[in-house]
C-alpha cells in the first residue's frame, strides 16, 4: 500500500479479507468510530473547561473563551456566557471593557 492510502481504505481491505464485504456494515462501523471520537473530544473539552473554572481568575476564564469557544461569544446572551464561565451576569461586559486594547484601564 502506498503512503497516500487512507485509514478507511486499509480498514476496508482488512474487513474484506475477513469476509465483511458489505459496504453498509463498513459504513456503520465507520460512523460508530466517528461518534466515539466526537464523544472523546467532547469529554476532553469538558475536562479542560472544568480545570479552567477551578484554576483561573474570572479575567482568564473570559480570555479563554475567544480562542476556545468563539461561537458562544457570538451567539449567546451575556448572562449565559457569565454562567458558562462561572461569574455574575454583569461580569462579562465589565471584563470585555477591561480587556479592550484601546481602553484606559486606569479608570474604575
For the termini, the CA-CA separation is 66 Å
Percent of residues in β-strands: under 5%
Task: Outline the biggest β-sheet.
Answer: none
By helix and strand content, what is the structural category?
mainly alpha
Report low-confidence residues grouped into runs of 5 or more.
none
- Number of separate domains: 2
Notes on the structure:
With 108 residues, the chain is an all-alpha fold. The chain has helices spanning 7-17, 23-55, 58-68, 70-75, 78-85, 91-99. Helix 3 packs across helix 6 (91-99). The longest helix is centred in the middle third of the chain and has 33 residues, at 23-55. The radius of gyration is 23 Å and the shape is elongated. It starts with 6 loop residues before the first helix and ends in a 9-residue tail after the last helix. The mean pLDDT is 81.
Summarize this, please?
The protein has 108 residues and is mainly α.
Jot down its keywords.
108 residues, mainly alpha, 2 domains, 6 helices, 72% helix, elongated
Ordered list of secondary-structure elements with their pairings:
Elements: H1 7-17, H2 23-55, H3 58-68, H4 70-75, H5 78-85, H6 91-99
Helix pairs in contact: 3-6
Amino acid at each position: 500500500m502506498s503512503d497516500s492510502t487512507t485509514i478507511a481504505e486499509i480498514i476496508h481491505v482488512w474487513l474484506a479479507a475477513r469476509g465483511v464485504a458489505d459496504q453498509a456494515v463498513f459504513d456503520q462501523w465507520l460512523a460508530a468510530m466517528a461518534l466515539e471520537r466526537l464523544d472523546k473530544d467532547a469529554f476532553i473539552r469538558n475536562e479542560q473547561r472544568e480545570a479552567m473554572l477551578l484554576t483561573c481568575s474570572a479575567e482568564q476564564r473570559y480570555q479563554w473563551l475567544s480562542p476556545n469557544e468563539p461561537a458562544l461569544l457570538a451567539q449567546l446572551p451575556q448572562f449565559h456566557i457569565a454562567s458558562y464561565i462561572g461569574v455574575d451576569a454583569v461580569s462579562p461586559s465589565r471584563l470585555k471593557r477591561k480587556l479592550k486594547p484601546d481602553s484606559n484601564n486606569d479608570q474604575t
